[in-house]
Amino acid sequence: MAPLRVIGGLAALTLAASLAACGSATPSGDVLRAAGVEARTVAVTDAARLPDVVEATRRLGLATLALADRGDNVVLSPASLAGAFAMLAEGAAGESLAELDAVLGATGADRGDAWAAIRGSLAGLDGDPAAAAGDELPERPIVHLATRVVLDEGFDPRPEFLERLAETFDAGITRAELSDSTATAMLSEWIRRHTGGLIRETAIEPNADLRVVLQDVVLLAARWQAPFDPADTQDLPFTLPDGSPADTETMTAGGFFAYAEAGEWAAVRLPYTEALHADVVLPPQGADPADATPELLEDISSALDDADPVQVELALPTVDTGTTKTPLIDKLAPLGLGTLADPGSADLSGIAGSPGDLVLAQAVQQAVLRIDEEGTVAAAVTELGVAETSATLPPAREIRFDRPFLFTVSHDETGWPLFLAAIRDPRH
């Protein structure tokens, strides 16, 4: 994505003027940009609140997972969820900003430093999104991040809002007629381009009240450090959530892995070739993957960090979820963000206007997850639509993920939770 980069009030005012004069966006969704200006760069060691933001993002992902339909596979990107809401926070004020601050783990410049550090730390893993959809995974992992602000024709936000999004999130900006079906094609084309075609369509429904759409993409393509041998893949029993049996395509391997237990939960860590790892977490019999608490996953992650590899006989189903869709509007209140969608209390006056003029009217995350012998491919897009209102080796352990399980992908350096999935039925 060609980014918009802005510094200083004069640049922001110039940008706002050029946006006001700009015609409808082209079908390709090209973005405006400011030449010769750089986005913020912050070292991980200089972002004091980064651990708090990472922990808050993990909590947001788990809380959303717990609220999602427990009858289906659910794939989420906590990173994309938090990214979209962090962008929205730059336009919030009053009680709405207080809610977002509490959910996102840091406020103001501290939160901006954390996000700039995260993006900088992951920048070395960026790559061509099309490589994620190829027949073979790339040799090096790809983590591609993309953010964009789409403004309705004739709607002029506060320049400071656009400036902060560009500085902190490297967000591109474009215009579209958000009441028109042509916006669907433009929003969808950007998603396809930045997810390598893994996600095909926008979840935003154009209407006459839409003024701003925020889009946040996270894309992952990574090879296992130790790939599974396809010759060892076989159909093995799996217990579905209702207790009924099913045969599922299952990868098997014996090897040395970090292994940990917390109460009746067990987990194994599968490293990718560099910079990333997956933790696969098996709940006790009868428990659902979404029963995992932040404290439990923190205990498991810490134990896996410290664990020496032990011999494990592993059986893990292959996964191909297709595109899952998680509506968010009905989850805002239990997530602690209830004012955002309430016309009587929403305060998005940092975007434009006065408190009550704008409200979060649409919020959806779409995600896809594929796990096979070679590695993992995952993509997510979160879209927010802002509307005018009106030692001695022990015996080898055996761990069979033969019932619903939790799958996470995290960044090694920061612990940033890229993906979180409850796999209840791996058949595909």
Radius of gyration (CA) equals 22 Å
- Which structural category fits the helices and strands? alpha+beta
State the CATH superfamily name. Antithrombin, subunit I, domain 2
In which range does the helix fraction lie? 25-40%
Q: How many helical elements?
A: 8
Compute the number of structural domains: 1
% residues in beta strands: 25-35%
Low-confidence stretches: 1-30, 33-37
Q: Secondary-structure element sequence?
A: HHEHHHEHEHEEEEEHEEEEEEEE
Task: Name the average pLDDT.
Answer: 90
β-strand number: 16
Output the CATH class name.
Alpha Beta
The coarse overall form would be globular
- Please give the CATH architecture: 2-Layer Sandwich
CATH topology: Antithrombin, Chain I, domain 2
Q: Ends: how far apart? A: 33 Å
Q: Major sheet: size, sense and barrel closure?
A: 9 strands, mixed
Give the tags.
single chain, Antithrombin, Chain I, domain 2, disordered N terminus, alpha+beta, seven-stranded mixed beta sheet, nine-stranded mixed beta sheet, 428 residues, 8 helices, 16 strands
